[in-house]
Description:
Mean pLDDT: 79
Largest sheet: none
Oligomer: single chain
Shape: elongated
Strand content: under 5%
Radius of gyration: 19 Å
Helix content: over 70%
Low-confidence stretches: 40-53
Amino acid sequence: MPDNKAMQTNLCKTLVTYKKALSLFLLTSSLIVTNVYAQTASQVKDNPSNASKNTLSAEQILHTSLVLTALQLDFYNERCRGISVAKNFNKVNRLYITKYSLTANNYIKLYINPDVRKEKAQHETAFKKNLNAIGGCSNAKKQGWIKALNEQFNKKYDQAELSAWFPEEN
Length: 170
């Protein structure tokens, strides 16, 4: 029969690992949004006349975060579950087409990075680095990382459905 003290020690170690992984995930998510801010700030610095056009509203931040979270979930599904269909990105795409007559790829092109493929590749690389840092697919699932990502996606999706934001004409 295992010693209670040993079981408590193992539980504490597991909780610490979980907290570190969750912190890493939240840091990564915030870095994505910070990256979008930095790109916008550098565009404004390079061309101050575009300042009003390049400033992100809270609604745009929500939509940007939704698109990038959908990509992360799909990267997980492809890497860890062998599902190559971009289910979450397609769900966002359907919302954007229905609500804004704009595809999710065009959203990325207009509001995040004109080079959509490069942007997706960068996020996929960052995702894989984070996944490796927490110990792979099985640890991501054990630690609740993917569950938290799913909850975050669903929350953002629901907010985006209710959003009053509409893409500006260029």
